[in-house]
Specification:
It is built from 9 helices and 6 strands. By secondary structure, the protein is an alpha/beta fold. It has a 6-stranded parallel beta sheet.
């Protein structure tokens, strides 16, 4: 479908190539043990995962700071679970989480094989809302950094997806045109609608088994990218 028109493929990182939920769970398992937090991990994650999505949405919209995101997403979950944790411990957990998150590097099924498939014929890039200090480590530690020509993050751009500024910056850095560029990501609002507003083609990786839509083609496995490129 895009084979004859696309020259540049832009990927989101978290929830698209890098298996955020699996790596995040392993990180919490480690830091809870290190900090003597006696909360059952499944109970914590059941509340944390939707809370984290909600706080990230607020962060994308510029309604909370990075520091508030990191603190409030933990504070709110412990409060909901009625587990007493001091502010000092929450801050320690927040720091430990950032420190250790990139040491776990599970990728989604077929991530490496699809990058190997695409690399000879397309220029590959990353556009991520994640924090620069962490995203670079994720790419390097999971051994996929070398696949990408340009890595654009929201701190570099000064805005977050879906703001068109970050998509336009990515085009400029990649020396690419929107009409020959394809964005692949998991978040409908940030990745798909944001990219389309900037003139990109888009392919939605439905990592969260979300509802179907007609904004673009949807895939459930990264290997399905071969049907389009």
């Amino acid at each position: 479908m895009f084979k004859d028109i696309v020259t540049d493929v832009f990927f989101d990182l978290d929830h698209t190539l890098w298996d955020f939920e699996k790596n995040s769970a392993l990180t919490f398992e480690k830091i809870f043990q290190d900090n003597n937090i006696e909360v059952a991990l499944p109970d914590f994650l059941e509340v944390y995962i939707p809370a984290n999505f909600a706080f990230w949405k607020l962060f994308r919209e510029g309604k909370i700071t990075k520091e508030a995101l990191r603190y409030e997403r933990l504070k709110s979950v412990f409060d909901d679970l009625k587990y007493q944790v001091s502010d000092e411990n929450i801050n320690n957990l927040s720091e430990d989480y950032i420190t250790h998150l990139s040491s776990f590097n599970h990728l989604f099924l077929n991530a490496i094989s699809i990058l190997d498939y695409l690399k000879p014929n397309y220029k590959l890039h990353i556009i991520t809302n994640g924090f620069q200090e962490v995203q670079g480590k994720k790419l390097k530690n999971s051994n996929i950094h070398g696949y990408f020509d340009q890595i654009i993050d929201s701190e570099m751009a000064g805005v977050k997806k879906p703001d068109p500024i970050i998509f336009n910056l990515a085009l400029n850095r990649a020396n690419a045109r929107p009409e020959t560029s394809l964005m692949i990501g998991d978040n409908l609002e940030a990745d798909i609608l944001g990219a389309q507003a900037a003139g990109y083609h888009a392919l939605h990786f439905n990592a969260h088994q979300g509802p179907k839509h007609d904004f673009c083609q949807i895939i459930d496995d990264l290997d399905e990218i071969k049907s389009f490129l």
